[in-house]
Specification:
Elements lengths: L3 E6 L3 H21 L3 E7 L15 E3 L2 H6 L5 E4 L7 H10 L3 E4 L2 H17 L4 E2 L10 H8 L5 E7 L2 H13 L3 H10 L8 H4 L2 H15 L9 E2 L7 H9 L2 E12 L2 E12 L11 E8 L3 E8 L3 H20 L28 E11 L4 H11 L4 E6 L8 E8 L2 E2 H12 L4 E10 L5
Parallel strand pairs: 1-2, 1-4, 2-3, 4-5, 5-6, 8-10, 10-17
Antiparallel strand pairs: 7-9, 7-11, 9-10, 11-12, 13-15, 13-16, 13-17, 14-15
Helix pairs in contact: 1-11, 3-4, 4-9, 5-9, 6-7, 12-13
Length: 437
């Protein structure tokens, strides 16, 4: 092979970064691979809009299907996003002998097995480093650098939008809605931010990482997912006063006979490394039985960071093709015949510490009612916090920190508290992870 000929589906922000990087860094890439990368085709909804890119020698049109079948394309780079028609187009590309590189986390997390099986059948490579954490090479790290380890746990911040919002809420004392509007204005959040702030984006990424870590098919639907919409500036303040910060964490642990997979707002100690990850940055911590805990940190989204990850996959592919290799590393780390699903533990069986914030009527006996409920469910209290007195019939904030207890007992306690006449509104509960790196 004299060159690696690339066809690209989409010409959005990341795709423009890929085109620019191949042009700008092409000579250096060729020196590293022995095979130049050449962008030959782009299929986009608006072929007349090229955003000022130098696309000399590149065929640009709207025919996505033709691109997946084109004889002059060796690898299809999918940067359209979404499930459909992306899945159909990539299956077509693989069936027509093309390798595939994608940044589509939702597609890999929800329909990845269909693509992996088709790639194996056709002896083609399917690469997706850019689907998780942008420029942070976490897929390669787990799949290759830590391949000899038994992975014990993964935790981290995988969504820059949520991390930016939580950072700004703490530093500027703003509400969630105010900070979200600011993030949208700066381009850090989409017009519809649901995938980000409701935890779906993070869960897609966790499904991919856990599949690679433990050799299982991606299991997005089994992940317990909570977002950050209910986090208030008062929660941020209470956490800070207790020596904690609130982060949206992806957490995966290998437990007896299965996995623990969850995405949730979490109180982490200010002394932990994960608490120091600020703004739009991502960080992932992986614990292996021999390597111990390793940390991977960087920009998790945006044109250039994500383009860097896409082109890194193209570099690997060019090196493999130059050496006459195909599918050198299985996409999910283990050989396909050894992929095996593992049961995911129900969130009800989780055991951890909890932060509980209640709005309560300020009168004698209320605290006794609440502590009695906790005691009835076997939950012991580590600390209770309350500030000031209520004016007239206004409610006051009561914050309780518990020792470790079962999730199902905590949820039963919260339901009982919500039925009390002295409790106003829905209690807020946030899980705590005091032992994280």
């Amino acid at each position: 092979m004299k060159e690696l000929r690339i066809g690209m589906l989409g010409l959005g922000t990341v795709a423009r970064g890929v085109a620019s990087m191949i042009r700008r860094n092409g000579q250096g890439i060729a020196h590293r691979t022995g095979i130049p990368l050449r962008l030959v085709r782009i299929a986009t909804r608006n072929p007349g809009k090229t955003w000022g890119l130098n696309l000399e020698g590149v065929r640009v049109d709207a025919d996505v299907d033709a691109l997946t079948r084109a004889d002059d394309v060796d690898v299809v780079v999918e940067l359209m996003g979404g499930l459909d028609p992306a899945e159909r187009l990539l299956l077509s590309a693989l069936d027509h002998g093309k390798h595939v590189v994608t940044a589509n986390k939702a597609l890999i997390a929800e329909r990845g097995m269909n693509l992996f099986e088709t790639a194996q059948k056709n002896n083609r490579e399917l690469s997706f480093e850019a689907a998780v954490a942008g420029a942070v090479p976490i897929v390669k790290a787990i799949r290759e650098s830590l391949a000899a380890n038994h992975i014990e746990s993964i935790h981290g911040i995988l969504n820059g939008t949520c991390n930016y919002i939580l950072t700004e809420m703490r530093e500027r004392g703003l509400s969630f809605d105010q900070t979200l509007a600011d993030a949208q204005k700066k381009g850090y959040a989409e017009a519809d931010p649901s995938f980000d702030v409701d935890g779906i984006d993070t869960a897609h990424k966790l499904a991919i990482l856990s599949a690679i870590a433990w050799g299982t098919p991606p299991d997005f639907r089994s992940i317990h997912v909570e977002g950050i919409r209910r986090i208030t500036d008062s929660d941020i303040t209470w956490a800070a006063e207790m020596g904690y910060r609130i982060k949206l964490l992806a957490i995966a642990k290998r437990r007896d006979h299965g996995l623990e997979l969850r995405v949730q707002p979490t109180l982490v100690t200010v002394s932990s490394m994960v608490s120091q990850v600020e703004g739009v940055f991502n960080a992932v911590f992986v614990k292996g039985d021999y390597a111990g805990t390793t940390m991977y940190h960087g920009r998790g989204a945006g044109e250039q960071p994500t383009a860097s990850a896409v082109v890194a996959d193209l570099v690997d592919l060019a090196r493999n093709q130059g050496a006459g290799l195909a599918s050198r590393v299985p996409p999910l780390s283990v050989m396909p015949q050894h992929l095996s699903p593992l049961p995911v533990h129900d969130i009800a069986d989780l055991k951890c510490e909890y932060y509980v914030r209640l709005a309560v009527v300020d009168r004698p006996g209320v605290l006794a009612e609440i502590t009695s409920i906790l005691a009835n469910h076997g939950i012991s209290i580590d600390a209770i916090h309350q500030k000031g007195r209520a004016v007239s019939q206004e409610a006051v904030a009561l914050v309780i920190v518990t020792h470790e207890c079962l999730e199902k007992e905590m949820q039963a306690s919260l339901a009982a508290m919500e039925r009390l006449e002295s409790v106003r509104g829905k209690p807020m509960v946030i899980r705590m992870e005091s032992g994280l790196t």
